[in-house]
Amino acid sequence: MSDVANGAGRTRTPTVMLAATLPAAIFLVLASAKAHDAVAKRLMTIASAVGVLPRSVGRDKWLIIAETGAATAKLRQSLAAGLGAEASFLDQSDSRTVIVADGPDVREMLAKGIGMDLAPDSFPEGASAMTAFGHLTVQVTRTAANRYDLIVTSSFADSLWESLREASLEFGCDAPEKLTDLG
After folding, report:
1. β partners of residue 107
2. Which is nearest to 82 in space by CA: 52, 40, 122?
3. 41 C-beta neighbours (distance < 10 Å), count
4. Which of 176, 168, 133, 171 shows the shortest CA–CA distance to 152?
5. Could you tell me the CA-to-CA distances from 10 to 4, 7, 178 in Å, in that order?
6. What are 74-87's pLDDT values in tens digits?
7. What is the DSSP secondary structure assignment for residue 39, as one 8-state letter?
8. Could you give the strand order of the β-sheet that contains 25-31, starting from the edge strand earlier in sequence?
9. Do residues 52 and 24 touch, judged by C-beta distance below 8 A?
10. How confident is the model at residue 1 (pLDDT cuts 50, 70, 90)?
11. Chain centroid to CA 72
12. Residue 42 in contact with residue 31, Cβ under 8 Å?
């Protein structure tokens, strides 16, 4: 980690890092309202077998991220075989962007734009929720003590990136200025 300039022009070691990840696949699972509990149970069984985490995006809806091509194939096959007629799944890989925010001050930085309690006792590792960061709807998941995944529709990814960078200025920010600078 290198020193960076904060908003006041001073240099410090950054305590918030931002990165965009390119998972192999992002699937949206939709269940019929009457079969929510049964589908949720089957989905947890499938996710456990494949080694992924279903992320709630509302009643009867989940996002699932597959990090590798092998996981994608196994997940796609398992969802097709195991969800049953009460649910369906859609590949959302091209329409969503995952931004990872981590570091010792990440919770304080996210509090500048997210109006929910991210303290570990209220939002533990593995917790997931749809919320807003400023004016943008995001799906946030706590993946480690000081690490959060923020999933946003790709058309709003640049705006979220800029908002996160701005919120990170007082902490330093170890990230390119623009999302498109990631290469």
Report:
1. none
2. 40
3. 10
4. 133
5. 8, 7, 21
6. 999 999 999 989 99
7. H
8. 54-58, 61-66, 25-31, 87-91
9. no
10. very low
11. 17
12. no
